Amino acid sequence: MAVTLTAGALSALAAGTAQAADVNVARNGGFESGLANWSCTGGTGASVSSPVYAGSGALKATPAGQDNARCSQTVTVKPNSTYTLSTQVQGSYVYLGATGTGTQDVSTWTPGSGSGWQKLSTTFTTGPGTTQVTVYTHGWYGQPAYVVDEFSVFGPDGGGGTDPGPSVPGAPAGAAVSGQSANALTLSWNAVGSATGYYVYQDGVRVRTVTGGAASTQITGLTASTSYSFQVSAYNAAGEGPKSAPVTGTTTGTDPGPGPGPAVPKHALTGYWQNFDNGATVQKISDVSAQYDIIAVSFADATTTPGAITFNLDSAGLGGYTVDRFKADIAAKKAAGKSVILSIGGEKGTISVNDSTSANNLANSAYALMQEYGFTGIDIDLENGLNPTYMTQALRSLSSKVGSSLVITMAPQTIDMQSTQGGYFKTALNIKDILTVVNMQYYNSGSMNGCDGKVYSQGSVDFLTALACIQLEGGLDPSQVGIGVPASPSGAGSGYVSPTVVNNALDCLARGTNCGSFKPSKTYPGLRGAMTWSTNWDAKAGSAWSNSVGPKVHGLP
């Protein structure tokens, strides 16, 4: 799907990464030692334990009157050297800068609503006689408090000393299994003092990441009357430590399997929900418009195990959205007849399923996540191609576990569906009996062939209808074809069309009306509907897309 790079991200790319010899010359940049090494004007700063980006501490400073709550420290630097200054911030109009560089002093800032963490980054070069530079952050007059964490100044060691780096944590002791049921076990262990989180391994495969100081977790999606081996490792900024001694647990009874999900309506509207903040409206699942019948949670995360996926809710980036509330919101949507599925792909979720082992890993990990969170299916949004043989194996394996209520959607790019010989098209045809819908992305695309052999450019009714015709005449049932478009111009790099264009394309395909120069030889009244990236960009634009396209989809014959 579409990924938007913010100005901060572009700055970070331009700055590049620190060289091997570079060190962080800032002290107490994570504020784990309160305000040690920091000075804040007028007593405006304080060390807080929440919200934090990482670790257990952060800086919170509150502008007051003519005081913009400037917090600074002096770092020791090397002359004629370049340093990268960066930090994570929450708040509106938060500044980051450096003075006394001996060359050009620098600063950068972030506007906006202040929701979620944002990265600020800039670089400065020291003069020939500069050995100390003052680095700072501050808010703005009349604005509420801002929060800063993970402050760093990377560059050559100026000889002023650095914070001692963490060491890799040791292996957790005391691993034990309890709370046995037909499809779940509870694993606990002794906490490791230097750990920031834990990895849980099931039969040698990493299946869970545990954060927030917890030293236990419930493993779900297991098979009844089956023994499993578990290990736990601790990790921190220095890396992952050794695994614990293995411990075995056995499930009991008969596995009732996951409860059936709601049926997808004949004509459905699909929307991708962002598990991150990129400038679109931050939403909880409960905030998603009732126009959407399928909500695709974006995205699953890849793991170090080939094919396996996991999911990590971005609670900090989503304004403190908790896992318990997330699960409850999914259950409420399901009770309202909506399908909430997990999308595989995107920035962090690129996986490779190229053999039977990775296919099984995908099926097993996806089933476990469905059990844990209540997802009713998965979406395949792998934009770098796929192996149709083994992706088919994975999806059929998952279907055998879940049953007929499993929702499977796909979101290929236009190039992926030009021919039935492409990997995506082959996969869709291979699983036609269990496939819900293919919502091709009619955006971020070059010109493509229509089913009539003519070339069409994105941004028109003809582009939508002539390319959809390839799928409709290439073997997919009309109920398995949807039109995927951005909800607003901000949702994609190119290819946005107004809701009117989408609605005209739906009319053309389903009714034979409102067509452009291309008119299909027959109508497809069973057409499934439409999809958008994303519900968040839709909300940002006042829900104009869903309020227009939703009723059109639901009113198709």
What does this structure look like?
A hairpin with a 2-residue loop joins strand 17 (227-236) and strand 18 (239-243). The chain contains 9 helices and 31 strands. The chain has helices at residues 7-15, 323-335, 356-373, 388-402, 423-430, 461-473, 499-511, 535-540, 544-554; strands spanning 23-24, 39-40, 45-48, 58-61, 71-76, 82-90, 94-99, 106-110, 118-125, 132-138, 146-155, 176-178, 184-188, 197-202, 205-210, 216-220, 227-236, 239-243, 247-250, 268-274, 294-298, 301-302, 309-310, 339-345, 377-381, 407-410, 437-441, 448-449, 455-456, 481-486, 529-533. With 557 residues, the protein is α+β, with helices and mostly antiparallel strands. Mean pLDDT is 88; it is low at 1-20. Residues 1-20 form the signal peptide. Residues 168-257 form the Fibronectin type-III domain. Pfam families: CBM_4_9, fn3, Glyco_hydro_18. Residues 246-255 have a biased composition (Low complexity).
